[in-house]
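thread: overnight batch results

M.L. [08:02]
morning all. the overnight job finished for the chain we discussed friday. pasting input first so we're all looking at the same thing
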Amino acid sequence: MKLHQENALGELGRAIGNGLLAGVAATAAITISQIIEMSITKRQPSQAPVKVASETVRAKPTNEEDKGKLSQEIHWAYGTAWGISRGLIGLTGLKGLPAALVHFVTVWGTSLVMLPHYDATKPIQEREPKDLAIDGLHHAVYAMTAGLVYDALDAGSKTQKRVDRLDRLIQHLRFKGLLNTIRS
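M.L. [08:03]
and the structure it wrote out:
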């Protein structure tokens, strides 16, 4: 019996674990991005995490210090958890920029729908273009970081080796002109 036998549950567990690690790294990156942006724009930290928490799990901080702590805890838990979706995207065989784009659209799209639903921000059509651009930039930093970290962790996995073999086969068929013949 092989102790390290590859199977579907093992691949899923690996993808989730790597996704969580990518989520931690991406949350650190978006946090740094937000700190830099807030120092330039003089914007105050978002109260959206606390607003959503008070609506969903009835968390009510009693003072400003507790509000800041709760906001940071939710920010890190939420960002880390979104890393799981990057792991699931990786299971499809997507990697690099295409996978990061899917992850970006998923994470930012959810934010654009969820936060207005809980009155934590204005709906997209009522927001200033500058604010949307800044928000999009932060989420792009998150998705790109998660993608880079996930792809680095996934390099050498059985799933990645299958994708690489398929890519090499496609390139070989293109070189031989067979792919164009098949498409005709």
